Recover the amino acids of this structure.
């Protein structure tokens, strides 16, 4: 292939990276050469190792997914690590992309980095409007700096470095580790273990009342490809399901119970943290570009993820 894009995906072995790989493989385009990286290829916290990796592949485009990522409880106990590792990785990837003349970088923020005290729905203009929720301030400030850096690279060097802001993501290849996972993979793992042991009480942490927008990783992957190919602004864009698709942790847990056909009861451990009550994000900007984009119905996406986990337990990140 000559003259086409060489797309380097950092964090290519993770939840979002694997979903992008699945969609790319299903398309069979010949004008794009995709390279999916994991931490085994290089520790992106290390400038020299990162530079070597870029010199090996000479990307024209970068999707920067690599990050220290985790659920509420992992963030609460590791704010410093989340901040430092992500600041280092982001600084190296953006600076080396600039040094190597990469044409476009798409990095990843998250709706959980938005201000804690805010008006709803939250939109792209509100990212820096006040402190994030204290539970994940390390991750949040590191991620917010990507937007600041994108603007600085644009102002000083005219780079097209942009970012997307996904809501809570789930799907095949997620991190199902009970200590560090987000809520959906954590509860899938938990419920699967309970069923295997013949238990009949499914304990969900917190009150079950917080509200979340959840996006299926394969839907997010399709949106990522659109951003890479067709969204040419430095300004961030929220990639989220509609506001009407927001569900409570309780409703989401009931959907898991259905997908597993679990006959026991759900109990809420109210001694555990709820985190931010809601982060309702507006996808109005996305809808202006893609008014007809169809998200996979939540029950279908949950069922596919549960089925994937049951089939792939031995290779899943547990
Ligand atoms: P993930 O499944 O935990 O994957 C993380 C990826 O980053 C893995 O490929 C991992 O490589 C790589 N990585 C971690 N540390 C690295 C290092 N020091 N050097 C090189 N690579 C490193 O995460 P994800 O859920 O796919 O998240 C992808 C992006 O989406 C992240 O930027 C995250 O902040 C953002 N995001 C995620 C969510 C969510 O709900 N999951 C929501 C909003 C935004 P190994 O596999 O080798 O460890
Ligand atoms: P967030 O969306 O960024 O807050 O992160 P999570 O995906 O970790 O979701 C946290 C929400 O799910 C909080 O309201 C938690 O109380 C609730 N939750 C219930 N059970 C669990 C669990 O087993 N793991 C996690 N991570 N969260 C849980």
């Amino acid at each position: 292939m000559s003259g086409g894009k060489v797309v380097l995906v950092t964090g290519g072995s993770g939840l979002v990276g694997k979903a992008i790989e699945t969609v790319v493989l299903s398309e069979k385009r010949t004008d794009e050469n995709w390279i999916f990286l994991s931490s085994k290829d290089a520790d992106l916290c290390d400038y020299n190792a990162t530079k070597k990796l870029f010199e090996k592949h000479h990307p024209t485009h970068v999707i920067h997914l690599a990050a220290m990522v985790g659920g509420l409880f992992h963030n609460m106990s590791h704010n410093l690590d989340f901040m430092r590792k992500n600041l280092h990785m982001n600084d190296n990837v953006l600076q080396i992309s600039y040094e190597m003349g990469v044409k476009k970088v798409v990095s990843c923020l998250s709706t959980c980095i938005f201000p804690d005290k805010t008006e709803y729905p939250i939109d792209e203009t509100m990212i820096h409007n006040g402190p994030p929720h204290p539970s994940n301030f390390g991750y949040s400030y590191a991620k917010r700096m990507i937007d600041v850096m994108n603007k600085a690279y644009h102002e000083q060097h005219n780079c097209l470095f942009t970012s997307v802001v996904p809501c809570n993501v789930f799907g095949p290849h997620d991190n199902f580790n009970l200590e560090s996972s987000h809520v959906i993979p954590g509860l899938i793992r938990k419920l699967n273990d309970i069923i295997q042991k013949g238990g009949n009480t499914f304990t969900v942490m917190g009150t079950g009342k917080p509200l979340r927008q959840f996006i299926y990783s394969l839907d997010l992957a399709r949106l990522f490809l659109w951003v890479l190919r067709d969204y040419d602004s430095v300004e961030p864009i929220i990639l989220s399901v509609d506001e009407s698709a927001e569900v409570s942790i309780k409703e989401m847990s009931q959907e898991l119970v259905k997908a597993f056909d679990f006959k026991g009861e759900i109990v809420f451990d109210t001694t555990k943290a709820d985190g931010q009550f809601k982060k309702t994000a507006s996808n109005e900007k996305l809808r202006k570009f893609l008014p007809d984009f169809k998200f996979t119905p939540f029950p279908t996406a949950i069922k596919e993820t549960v089925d994937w986990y049951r089939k792939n337990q031995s290779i899943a990140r547990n």
